[in-house]
Amino acid sequence: NMFSMDLEKLQMTGAGRAIAVLTSGGDAQGMNAAVRAVTRMGIYMGAKVYLIYEGYQGLVDGGDKIKLAHWHSVTNIIQLGGTVIGSARCKAFTTREGRLAAAFNLVKKSITNLCVCGGDGSLTGANIFRGEWSSLLAELVKKGRITDTLAKQNDNLNIVGLVGSIDNDFCGTDMTIGADSALHRIMEIIDAIMTTAQSHQRTFVLEVMGRHCGYLALVSALASGADWLFIPEAPPHEGWEDLMCARLEGSRI
């Protein structure tokens, strides 16, 4: 029937293609689920899928840091926090030499589709890499490290960015990978310290992460019924100290 024919076509759309996936920057819960989804969908579509270990550092180092994945490479990871393929801050990738090494490692395996799961720095790096791709290949040909034919076969690098960040700070995404888990964790902490605060008639100040984005602070303040909130998007007005103290005193039983 038509459905099974379409399914067969779909399963062959990735035939002859190679995809690599890496996680970079700070780890965010949900990264493993993303790695698993990319790996299994890639295999399902008939593509070769490679896992890059230790983020961009693995891309620069190459060798056994870039491993061919099979269906079971990503079994039993969906429920784990962090990232099983590792992450690292990578100074080398910020240099032209580092990106040249990374391009060489990818071209050797004919990988021209890269899936990057990370935050602002990771995705900015991916965009620079994509923009430089043709000039990096030209330099590798000039240095005699790859053939002209190999460069022509792999002349275009496709990049997909998955926003792995607890901060929920990326325009165009409803919820970044890791934000929901961070919110759950914050609420657990608030529930735990609330009883202590009440027992001692204390007011606790809780600082949450979020970089330049107040999302986690705002939503956890709403969910926990906090009396006062500071977020970077709305700095407090002059004389806020007296106002805050009056509010906190008013909420005392």
TrEMBL record:
GO molecular function: 6-phosphofructokinase activity; AMP binding; ATP binding; fructose-6-phosphate binding; identical protein binding; metal ion binding; monosaccharide binding
Entry's Gene Ontology BP terms: canonical glycolysis; fructose 1,6-bisphosphate metabolic process; fructose 6-phosphate metabolic process
UniProt cofactor(s): Mg(2+)
Keyword Kinase attached: yes
Pathway assigned in UniProt: Carbohydrate degradation; glycolysis; D-glyceraldehyde 3-phosphate and glycerone phosphate from D-glucose: step 3/4
Limits of the Phosphofructokinase domain: 19-237
UniProt keyword terms in alphabetical order: Cytoplasm, Glycolysis, Kinase, Magnesium, Metal-binding, Transferase
InterPro entries linked: ATP_PFK, Phosphofructokinase_dom, PKF_sf
Catalyzed chemical reaction(s): beta-D-fructose 6-phosphate + ATP = beta-D-fructose 1,6-bisphosphate + ADP + H(+)
Pfam families per UniProt: PFK (PF00365)
Gene Ontology CC: one annotated term: 6-phosphofructokinase complex
Name by which UniProt lists this protein: ATP-dependent 6-phosphofructokinase
